[in-house]
Amino acid sequence: MSEVVLQQTASAVVGPDRSRVLARMGAFDRAFHQITRAAALIVLIILGGVIVSLVHGSWPAMKAFGFSFLTSQAWNPVTENFGALPAMYGTIVTSLIAMVIAVPVGLGVATFLTELCPHQLRRPIGVAIELLAGIPSIIYGIWGLFVLAPFLQAHVQPPLIRAFGDVPGLSMVFAGPPYGIGMLTAGFILAIMVLPFIASISRDVFETVPPMLKESARGIGCTTWEVMRHVVMPYTSVGVIGGVMLGLGRALGETMAVTFVIGNAHKVAPSLLAPGTTISATIANEFTEAVGDLYTSALIELGLILFVITFIVLAIARYMLMRIEQNKA
Asked: What are the helix and strand counts (H, E) for the chain?
């Protein structure tokens, strides 16, 4: 009888304590739920505020120029005649040059580090590549202006002009005097800047491939190239595309490094050796000197255009990833 009384007493004591603990855990869970929801809403509010601010600030330029702002090459602050075509053209061309250079090199670096590099060298080389991402962009710009541009002017651009000068089509792409600065130089700088992102992400996703898959491929006689082509790349395609798109986003929005070496000329030239400009470089160069509402509004509209371009690129990336996942399924 005494044991029954003790058990009832213990249950009476434990019951309220357990209820209080459960109630406290439920309160923490509800608070955590509300905090995470608020964080997500804050991100959406900030994004919406950026969009509204850009549209509101660019509205005077939209009313003054309309759709012709996207097709005009004019940029005359004195007469308040502005066009975004040279900046859009330079942004897209320099980013494409950077991707053409950085993607193969980045994938090659990742392949070397995961498949071919001696084990004792993997960590030092990997750290060195990641350190490139930490260098400020203005340092890249100074190096590009004083080191890379003179080197390209003396040793790269003249051979390109001679080699493609008589080739139909390509003669326009590599025409003109070797200035050193220009869209090709800006593309090289951007390629160096986005290379760490592509190489590091690709290396990380390559390392997630199960060793059994690669060993099985080698067991049936596949070479390292065939293992990468038919096993590693299909398995990690989503991660690789994500790294490439991250690098492309960095290239589209880069400002200071490009400003140093692109030449800052508001014109559309078919030659990659000619000076040009980008949206970010135009805003950085002229925003502090913008006098008048229309001038400022035109620069803000350039920012809105860059936002739209970035959004389109991200949407294409998401669509590609969705298609890849559907094909895998």
From this structure: 16, 2
